[in-house]
Amino acid sequence: MDLLRSLKPSTKDRIMDLVEAVGIDVTAWKASGPANPSFCYQWGFASDDRSRILLCLWYDDCELDADGVLQRWNFRDYIKQIELDGGPKAGRARRVDELLQDAWRLKVPIRVALVEESERKKAAKKEGDPSKPDFRELDPVPWRLTHYDWMTGECVLRRGLGDVDRELDSVERGHGGPTVIAEVTPENEVASSNQRSDELLEDLIAEITRTDIPSTTRDALIQARVGQGSFRAALIKAWDGRCAVTGCKELAVLRASHVKPWRRSNDSERLDSSNGLLLTANLDAMFDTGLISFTDDGEMLLSEEIGVDSAAELGLPAPLRIALSENTATLYGFSSSRAISC
Description:
By secondary structure, this protein is an alpha+beta fold. Helices cover 38% and strands 17% of the residues.
């Protein structure tokens, strides 16, 4: 069976259940009934902090190329087409475009519910007839935006979190990377980036397919693996919304970094905010690859691979702004958590 055909939905799950499955609060929805049109007819759903986004996409719009499954959209053009008809569809499409903007700005993965009509209904449908799904299923693999044009609204969504034609930084750059620092060359830098992307996708698939934990815990682990969800929220609170080193308070460039690498941590440690730092994207990338580390008292250690000029340009070394919590220093001692050549 080819990849596209394997994604074709064959059952119709309730949209409310799918929204809840990805960790979005449906308390108000449940209280008003699962068939409440204010909720169930929407095409996009999100948590308040936009760390979790679910979009309903038509299976027939899926394409397959050398890099996998994708969909190309321009919801702004679609909005123009349906605004003349009036009704709620333009508002639903506008919300999807807004959620795509949030996903692009915050660099968060997108969960997708694929919807499909029956072949019988397709055959009987006349031109201009509205489409109504007969099947709806949640894709277990997260998607991500690889392109979004702020001016036009054109976008490309790809299935999976691999490193494909996008300047994703921390979302596609997993923690727990190599612990031995080799000479940095263009060739091994690309190989290292690809390796981290592959590890991230492997880890996400491993979490998605787990059956030994509750769905809420599974979703929290998935979000934590990409530096989002409650793990990131707790770090933002712990560090007062600022980078632990520079004090930068622009949340769009701040990354939730695990101290003890993901693959060496248990589930509790993976969700423990004490096992984390809030860092700007450049410091997160350096911490991830072992170019910088910290002593237990917060002093920064620099790898010998960082030249004197580069360190000066980056303002390094620089200590942590505030002292580590006792729990962090005791359980996740920095100087012993990562190998670094100094």
